[in-house]
Design goal:
Number of domains: 2
CATH class of the largest domain: Mainly Alpha
Strand content: 5-15%
Largest sheet: 2 strands, antiparallel
Length: about 270
């Protein structure tokens, strides 16, 4: 049927061209952004899953940062404990030197002065902080470090009782001019060094646990990123092929629309006088 008021051929051609333009625009958006999903219209369900995975990735990265900060704190703590070890070793050496019967009383006084200075340094170590947070406490308190992005796993980080090494072994009440006091001091220092070695061993164990947790989070993050990539990222090879197809269909549709619009001229020829 030839109709003057309605050109259905042109309407259907325009409809197909509109759909092709929409598909072409979507393909171009995907190629330019590198994402398969650029709006909820593209894949509502996939977008919801991707949003949850993306949030999980960000929480994992934040957890890794927190764990690395905790490791840095423990490394700083161990550095102080190492310095304390050097101090105790020197104090033990001074006590041993004071026991030398060939030394005069004035020599013992000099040893005593250095020993007292070292005890002051040892006490000062107990007040050290990391980013405003105390690294040592008299009760050896344990702080919980979140080790998983869901917050369900924690690792204990101890505020070592460095003060106890000093106080419990009576390192401050020392008289290096008295042989009996020196003997007791040497024994106490041996115990103090042993106590300090336990603190360092505990510190190293906690560092290792935190390092393992960071490694596990790295593996989890890579796995989640791969899963999110399957949902969110565009397959460039497939999409390039689709874009070429839509581009050809777009050009063909425009040509067909032009042809459909020309069909109405048939009516004019029918109306021409013979």
């Amino acid at each position: 049927m030839i109709s003057l008021n309605t050109n259905m051929t042109s309407r259907w051609a325009a409809y197909s061209l509109t759909n092709t333009n929409t598909a072409l625009q979507k393909s171009l958006n995907r190629l330019s952004s590198g994402h398969r999903i650029n709006s909820s219209f593209d894949d509502a369900g996939g977008l919801a899953v991707s949003m949850k995975l993306s949030a999980s990735i960000r929480r994992t990265e934040a957890t890794q940062s927190n764990l690395n900060n905790a490791i840095s704190s423990l490394q700083t703590q161990d550095g102080i404990l190492k310095s304390a070890q050097s101090v105790l070793t020197r104090m033990s050496e001074l006590a041993q030197l004071s026991a030398d019967v060939t030394k005069s009383s004035s020599d013992a006084v000099l040893y005593q002065a250095e020993y007292n200075g070292l005890t002051s340094a040892l006490v000062e170590f107990t007040a050290e902080q990391f980013n405003g947070t105390a690294m040592f406490s008299t009760d050896g308190a344990t702080r919980s470090v979140v080790a998983s992005e869901d917050g369900n796993q924690t690792i204990g980080m101890t505020q070592s009782n460095l003060a106890g090494v000093y106080v419990d072994n009576n390192l401050g009440s020392v008289d290096l001019t008295n042989i009996s006091s020196i003997t007791t001091t040497i024994s106490n220092l041996e115990t103090a060094i042993q106590d300090l070695s336990k603190l360092r061993a505990s510190n190293g164990s906690e560092q290792m646990r935190l390092a393992f947790a960071v490694d596990m989070l790295s593996i989890n993050r890579n796995t989640i990123e791969a899963a999110n990539s399957q949902i969110q990222d565009v397959d460039l090879a497939t999409e390039s092929s689709n874009q070429a197809k839509q581009s050809i269909l777009n050009q063909t549709g425009m040509a067909m629309l032009s042809q459909a619009n020309q069909s109405s001229r048939v009516v004019l020829r029918l109306l021409e006088p013979t």
